[in-house]
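Hey, resending since the last one bounced:
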Amino acid sequence: MRRLAVYAVVFAATGLFTPQPASAQVGGDLAVGYSFLTNDQLAANASNLPLGFFFDTSYEVNEGLSLALDVNGHYRRGIDPHPTYSGGPMDMPVTPNPNQDFQALSFNRPEREYCSPILLNAEGGNLCELHIQTAGVVGGPRFHFQAGGVRPYFHALFGVARSLRKIGFFAHTATHWAIQPGGGVDIDMTPNTAFRIQADYRLTMFPNEDAQTDLSGTSSLVNPGGEDFKELSFSLGFVVRLGDRRN
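The structure tokens again:
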């Protein structure tokens, strides 16, 4: 996957410096819509984050290449905390250091053990819930071509992803590098608008350092051992053409 990033940069640079005909139109577009994300290990009782959005803009360098920026967010709330760990029954906790708070990191205990007795025994029933959330900012080259009324494309985007796990009164976040290759198609609606269908694979790269022993502060607070998050996203939205792309 990291080798793919190098190849994408080379291809993008080739497109940037390719001479363009005088008649070639350049411009950009703006897209916004709904996004769905699968869940890797943020919660044991949730397989996805169904509530999400994306905001995407791109600058068209030439007829086959654009530079794209994508901002996305996904969340799910009201999850029932599981008596096991966030990654499931096989995701055992990291043993905390003797001089460190046992509740310091959200993978030290099963999810349900983070629920305060105040919430578990609240009048009217258990009020302890698990909330998960992600946010990503990625950018990179997007390759495309026009085929009648549709415009297929694929891209290799790079940036950061931020993950949040909140159980009862406890919350932990982590921000790490992410790679998001994918593609889609823009289907013309009017001369200056289109409907977008897009699918992406997102790899969030967690460091190998153990958060319990790492003193540099570069380790993860939501996932031990450096196991990367591997997730899929599906997006639907509307596109508005900008600048010289307008007809």
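The mean pLDDT is 79.

Sorry for the duplicate.
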